[in-house]
Design brief:
With about 120 residues, the protein is mostly helical. About 65% of the residues lie in helices and about 0% in strands. The longest helix is centred in the first third of the chain and has 17 residues. GO terms for molecular function: heme binding; metal ion binding; oxygen binding. InterPro entries: Globin-like_sf, Globin/Proto, Hemoglobin_trunc. Keywords: Heme, Iron, Metal-binding, Transport. This is Group 1 truncated hemoglobin.
């Protein structure tokens, strides 16, 4: 059985650190920082750690219906999704993930674009 990226990079503990790094950058971002105002960040980081873990072979799972329902009211644009993906790639790089594995992780995230971005977004 092939090793997943989740296992290769140390599991939940490492992914949690990646997600924390991502949110440090996201909160400073002029493009997407406003999405995190008045948010319970520890709860969001825990949720996102589970979500990212699920995307790279970890034990959690989320249905597309649930992901879409959680993001529907946020009015996330394609540009904001692109910024998020770029920052997330930077966070993965900072935590030692190889370029090829970053591409694999970002491809998994890209696969959720259609249910995260607002349907009528530019």
């Amino acid at each position: 059985m092939a090793q997943t990226l989740y296992e290769k990079y140390g599991g939940f503990k490492t992914i949690s650190r990646v997600v924390m790094t991502f949110y440090e950058m996201a909160l400073d971002s002029d493009e997407i920082g406003h999405h995190f105002e008045d948010i319970d960040m520890p709860r969001l980081i825990d949720h996102q750690t589970k979500f990212v873990s699920s995307l790279i072979g970890g034990p959690a799972s989320f249905s597309d219906d649930r992901i879409e329902a959680v993001h529907r009211h946020l009015n996330i644009s394609h540009n904001e999704f692109d910024v998020m993906a770029e920052l997330f790639g930077d966070a993965l790089s900072q935590h030692g993930m190889s370029d090829g594995d970053i591409k694999t992780a970002l491809t998994a995230i890209e696969g959720k674009r259609s249910i995260i971005v607002t349907r009528n977004a530019a």
